Amino acid sequence: MATTAMPSAAAYEATVTAPVNIAVIKYWGKRDESLILPTNSSLSATLSQDILHSKTTARADPNFTGADTLWLNGTPEPMSASKRLANVVNALRAKRAALEASDSLLPKMSKWIVHVVSENNFPTAAGLASSASGFAALVFALANLYQLPEAKDGEAGAGRSTLSALARLGSGSACRSLFGGFVAWEMGTHADGRDSVAVPVAPASHWTDLEALVLVVHDGRKGVSSTSGMQTTVQTSALAQERFKSVVPQRMFDMKQAILRKDFDQFAETTMMDSNQFHAICLDTFPPIFYLNDVSRAIIQLVTDFNATPVAGYTGKYKVAYTYDAGPNAVLYLPRQFVRPVLALIQHYFPAPTDVPAADYFADPYKVGVNYPAPSSTNVAELAKTKLTPHAPGAIKRILHAKIGDGPRVVYAGPATGAGETGLMGKDGTPAKK
Amino acid sequence: MATTAMPSAAAYEATVTAPVNIAVIKYWGKRDESLILPTNSSLSATLSQDILHSKTTARADPNFTGADTLWLNGTPEPMSASKRLANVVNALRAKRAALEASDSLLPKMSKWIVHVVSENNFPTAAGLASSASGFAALVFALANLYQLPEAKDGEAGAGRSTLSALARLGSGSACRSLFGGFVAWEMGTHADGRDSVAVPVAPASHWTDLEALVLVVHDGRKGVSSTSGMQTTVQTSALAQERFKSVVPQRMFDMKQAILRKDFDQFAETTMMDSNQFHAICLDTFPPIFYLNDVSRAIIQLVTDFNATPVAGYTGKYKVAYTYDAGPNAVLYLPRQFVRPVLALIQHYFPAPTDVPAADYFADPYKVGVNYPAPSSTNVAELAKTKLTPHAPGAIKRILHAKIGDGPRVVYAGPATGAGETGLMGKDGTPAKK
C-alpha cells in the first residue's frame, strides 16, 4: 500500500486533463482481446472539457514504498490489480527506462513507485463512460511525468498517435481521447497493434458550428458490459462480419469526407445510421444485447420528426443527429442554430425531473439556456410534427451542453511541490484535501 | 352496394375457417411489391384454431347486383376498394372461368357477384395480425365455392400450394396459413411468382409435444406498417442483403432439420436468433423501425434466464423460445412440460391487469391453467435465476394458449341455404344476425 511521506526533493509530478469522445462510427468488436485490437476502424468527435473531462495527477518519488497505486475518485487500488492498468503503466515505464538507458544524466524515475490520483468532473451518475477520458488522462500524465518526447509532440505530431496506442491498451476508445476535434482510430493490420492508433482527421477549430447535447436517460437496469458484450457479438452475430468487412470501411470514408467538407447532412446521416447499426448487431447477438430503452426510442422518434419538419430558410436534409453508445443515453450533434429549438423540444417532451435543481438538470457552460423561454405548446408543435406525447418528468435526468473541443491539456509538469494547488495530490502522496 | 334479396335457388356458398401462423424464420422484404414476392424464404408453425382463426362465408348468387362486397367484422366494403383484395378475387374467378370454359354444364358462377362475410374469433385488441388467416380463409372459401380441383386436394397435394400463391397476393404470410403443422414459404426464383408458394414441412401430428403461448403486450404507440417498413428496410439496411443472401438459406435448412428431428434445442436457438435478426435489420433500417418495447425486452430476459437455469432431469439447452413479429407481442414455443412453469413465471413477473376478468386475461382451451396454483415467490425464484423485478399489473394484457394445429377447414360447401347456421351469411346475402 501507499506510504504517507512528504515528497522528496527528487520527486516529479504531472497533472493533466483529458476529454470525453463520442463516436460517430462505432467501435464494437475486438480481433485481439489482450492488445485491444478492433474488428473495425472508428471515428469520434472530442467534446469540450469545460464540463466533461478526467483530471489526473501522477507522481514518481524515490521515497515511495509499496506498490504503484491509483486513487480513482478517492478509492486507492494497487495498479497491479487491473491487468489493463498494469499494462498501460508498464508500457510507459518501459519507454522511460529506454530514455534513461540512453542518457545517464536522467533521474531514474522508471525505478520509482508511482502514485496516481484521478477524478472525473462529471458525476458517474451521468452514465457516461469515463474509461476513455480516464485512460487518456493516465497515459498523458505519465508521459509528461516521464518527459517522454511523444508528450511534447503536440496534436499534429506522430508522438501523440504513439501515446494513443498505449491508451488503447487500457480501453480501446481511450485512444481517440488523445486528440481534439475529429479523430479516427484506424484499426491497423499488424498483429502487434503498432498501427492500431488514433489519428487526427480535423482539429476542433475546423468546424466550430457543430455542437453537442448529451441527454442522460433514466434506466433501471444495468446493461451488459461492453467487454463481454462485444465478445459475444463477434462470436454469435451473423451480420457483424458484414459490418466489419464492408459497411464500416465505406462509412469511414464518407465520414471523413463529411467532416472535411463540413457537410452536416452527410455527417448526420452516417452518424445516425452507424449508431443504428451498432445497436442492430447488438440485437443480432445471442442472447441479444439491448442498450436502447423506450425513452431512447422516443428521442430517436423526436429527432426523426424534427428533421422531417421544414424550417423556413434551411435547406439541409437534417438538423440534428443522434448517436447512442452502450447505454440508453443519447448524444445529439447539431449546428449551433438548432441548439435552442432542440432544447425546447426536449424540455417539452421530456420534462425535467421534479426532484433535481434546474442547474443540475441542465449543465450549460455556454449559457444558451440562460433566459431560454419555456416554449408554448403551439411553438413546439410547429417545431416538429410528431405523434409523440410528453413523458413523465425525469425520463431524461440531465442535459449537458458541449462543443467540439481540444485534446489533453498539461496543467503542470515538473518537480513535485505537493502543494495540491494545480494537481490532485497532497504532500503525502495521497489525494489532496479539498 | 349489396342487394338484399333471398338467395336464389341457383346460389352457392362455402364457409371455411383458416388458422393463424407464427413464423420462426421471418419474412421481411419484397423483391416484387405487386406480386408480393419475398427477398427470402420463411417458415412458420400453424397455431390451433380453437381460439385463433378467421372464419369466412362466400356466396355467389346470379341475383346479386352491384359490386363484389366484403363484410369484414361487420363493415361492408366493395372488394375493388382494395387492390390486393381485388387481385385475389380476380385470380380465383379466373380459375373458375377456366373450369366453366372446359365444361359447359357447370353453373356460370364466374359471372355472378360474390358476397363475402369474414370474422376473426380473436379480438383485434389481441394485437395479432389477422391478414394472414383472413386472406387464407378468403382464398379457401372462394376455392370451395367455385369447386376448384385445388380445393379438394388436401394438405398433401400440390393444389394447396397453388392456392397458397393466391393467398400470397393478398398478404405474403397468408400463403403459410393454407397448411397445418410446419410450413415453408419457398421464395422461388421465377419473376411471375409461380414458384413462390407455401409447402408443408411436417403436419401438426408430427410434433405434438410442441405448444405455444401468445403474450399480448401493452403498447401505447402504433408501429410502422409492415408493408412500408419492409420497403424501407430493403432500400436502406446495409445488413439486410447479407441476411437474405447468406443467413436465411442456412437457417431454412437448419430449421427443417430441427423440425424433422423434433430437435427442440436447434428449433429454439434458430427461432430466437432469427427473431432477433429480423428486429436487428429493422433497427438497421433508416429511419430505424422499432417493434420491441421495454416489456418485450423484459420477456426476452426472462426467457433467457429461465433457459439458463437448470431443471433436474432435463438435459436440453433450451426450455422455451421467443419470437416477435412486427409488434411488441411475444409468441413462446415450448415443450408441453414447460407450459406450467413458464405461466408461473409470466404470472409472477407480469401480473394480470386489474381491470380485466381472469378468463379474458388467459385464454386456455386446453385447461392447463385450471386450478393452476399461484406460485409462491420462492418457487418462482427457483424456476429462473433472474434480476428481473415484477412489472406493474397489465404489462402483458392477455395470454393465449395454443397447440400446433391443422390447416383450413371446410365448414360447408354447396347450394346456398341462407340459414346462417353453419356460415356467417343470412338469407339476404349480408351478415347473419346473431
From TrEMBL, chains A, B:
What does the sequence similarity comment in the record state about its family?
Answer: Belongs to the diphosphomevalonate decarboxylase family.
Q: Which domain of life is it from?
A: Eukaryota
One Pfam assignment: MVD-like_N
Which key words are in the record?
ATP-binding, Lipid biosynthesis, Lipid metabolism, Lyase, Nucleotide-binding, Steroid biosynthesis, Steroid metabolism, Sterol biosynthesis, Sterol metabolism
* Entries under PANTHER family matching the protein: DIPHOSPHOMEVALONATE DECARBOXYLASE
Q: Which residues form the Mvd1 C-terminal domain?
A: 212-411
Annotated source species: Allomyces macrogynus (strain ATCC 38327) (Allomyces javanicus var. macrogynus)
| Pathway assignment | Isoprenoid biosynthesis; isopentenyl diphosphate biosynthesis via mevalonate pathway; isopentenyl diphosphate from (R)-mevalonate: step 3/3
- A GO term for molecular function: diphosphomevalonate decarboxylase activity
EC nos: 4.1.1.33
- InterPro entries, per this entry? GHMP_kinase_C_sf, Mev_decarb, Mev_diP_decarb, MVD-like_N, Mvd1_C, Ribosomal_Su5_D2-typ_SF, Ribsml_uS5_D2-typ_fold_subgr
Has the keyword S-adenosyl-L-methionine been applied to this entry? Answer: no
Q: Which reaction does it catalyse?
A: (R)-5-diphosphomevalonate + ATP = isopentenyl diphosphate + ADP + phosphate + CO2
A GO CC annotation recorded here is: cytosol
**Start and end of every Diphosphomevalonate decarboxylase-like N-terminal domain?**
18-198
A GO BP annotation:
isopentenyl diphosphate biosynthetic process, mevalonate pathway
The entry's protein name is Diphosphomevalonate decarboxylase
